[in-house]
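Sharing a chain and its predicted structure for anyone who wants a worked example. Both blocks are below, sequence first, tokens second.
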Amino acid sequence: MMTGKLTRFLLRLLAMLAVLAAFAVLDWYPTIKELGRLRRERGDLELRIKDYSAMAGKFEFPNEQENSLLASDRDELIRALPRVEGDDAWLGLVHSDLQGRTKGIANLMVISEADAFGPGPPGLTRWLRHQAQEIQQRFQAADPWRRYPWQAVFPIDPEDKGHLASRPLGVALDAPLPELLDFVNHFSWGDARLEIVFLRLEPVGRSARAWLVCRGSYQVSGPSPWLVKMDKGEGDGELIIDPDSPLLLQKVDPLLAPRIEKKELPPADSPW
């Protein structure tokens, strides 16, 4: 009799302990774990506050010499922009600049308007006409009257004879892939200072086609319909690449990349 009572007591005790253990696991442990996470976050925040306080204590505002250097940098940016008498002169500069840097590329078109795709190579022109609507949209996105992101970068002096102008421009080409990629990578290196806004690539056999919409900024001394409005143009410059481009979805062939021979570092006691 006593053995049965003792057994039932032990079973009840074990059941109560099991309930307490389950309650501790399901309720107390997550709470304790969350408290630990909050303590770690508080410690990290306190360390960051100390670091920021130390940085703020060491911060020094620019002195006159640094301000003069910043002003000279802004002047250098202004001088880097091409100066032309009119928009036609700027288009001529772009044509000559691109033609002078297209080594091995015979099929190149400069599109001054969103729907002006000719005359040009038949295959490339036909390909552009199939994408006329998208090209039109990209031209509108690069229109400085809608959005010009570099207004604060080029603070033109109102007393200066040059006025800041900007206009969208399209470039299309058909070339072997290495030459095409080299052209795109060095696109902004020319005297025209063109900035790529949108780029689309598409493979065609062993070759590739590409069209891009760019933004050109320049100083014009005469009247121009492309003058940048000084009360607009806030935003950040961001390169837009077509996420659905067939070429970008393909795996890169390592044979297209040039082989780079491994070079050993000179000994530590070498003068070189």
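Comments welcome. The first helix runs from residue 2 to 58.
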